Amino acid sequence: QVQLVESGGGLVQAGGSLRLSCAASGRTFSSYVMGWFRQAPGKEREFVAAISRSGGGKDCADSVKGRFTIARDNAKNTVYLQMNSLKPDDTAVYYCAAGPGDWPTIVGGYDYWGQGTQVTVSS
Questions:
Q1: What are the pLDDT digits (tens) for 57-88?
Q2: Residues 19, 20, 25, 28, CA torsion sign
């Protein structure tokens, strides 16, 4: 089992920045591919970014490319999402997830999920 706890969400003006953190406990953190997803009201949960076990491989959605950066610190069992140039369309609950890495860009590719943290971007 892996327990994931997100933090760092909040209210920010358009153009601002936030950094989300996800602390993991339980089984070996470095054995999992980690991902960030988000879900806006009335919409399906969507892929934001993913990072490989070592941190050397990264992928992100086209909608956040150039603005969001995913990183991990295996010594601290933590994955981060640095969000810059935020837009109102980025408003959503953000979730981190841990999985085996076979399908890192889809919800079904992850076994463990955090409870989510709200990000609200005002115009």
A1: 999 999 999 999 999 999 999 999 999 999 99
A2: negative
What does the alpha-carbon distance between residue 120 and residue 28 come to, in Å, rounded to a whole number? 32
Residue 74 is given by DSSP the state: T
**How large a percentage of the chain has pLDDT more than 70?**
99
Position 103 pLDDT exceeds 90? no
For tokens 């603005």, the residue is 67
For residue 24, give the 3-state DSSP assignment: strand
- Measure the CA–CA gap between 58 and 117, rounded to whole angstroms: 22
| Amino acid residing at 106 | I
Partners of 24 in the β-ladder: 4
pLDDT in tens, 16-33: 999 999 999 976 899 999
Pull the structure tokens for residue 90: 């980025």
Backbone φ/ψ region at 54: left (φ over 0), alpha (ψ -120 to 50), beta: alpha
